[in-house]
């Protein structure tokens, strides 16, 4: 239950346009979740903190946080979101092969019903593959859910 509360708390502040005001609160809640071994709460808070850093283009701090925090792979949805954020950080840091690997894995782990997430992750994956000098697979463009957003 606490994981949902953390998620909606972060979402509400992101929607209001002042996510910087909750960064310290998110970090303290993450510390508390680690101390009481709240694994779902840790996963949600980890993603909320990464999203907060990326919202303000603080890629260096996001990378340092992701290296310090433990990787939680139990919840596929949260893990897919985590991989997307790490892939985005790697893409900005010019680590294209790592970004390609993370984004591909995020697309494999995300549910098929998460069309918006798949659209954003696929767009970034196409850009990373083009920057690496590779041609994206044609099947990526033929997916009915992604067809409109990729053209």
TrEMBL record:
SMART domains for the chain: PAM (SM00753)
Domain (26S proteasome non-ATPase regulatory subunit 3 N-terminal TPR repeats) ranges: 1-150
Database matches in Pfam families: TPR_PSMD3_N
One of the GO biological process terms: ubiquitin-dependent protein catabolic process
InterPro entries: CSN3, TPR_PSMD3_N
Top-rank taxon: Eukaryota
GO cellular component, one term: proteasome regulatory particle, lid subcomplex
Protein name from the UniProt record: 26S proteasome non-ATPase regulatory subunit 3 N-terminal TPR repeats domain-containing protein
Organism, as annotated: Amorphochlora amoebiformis
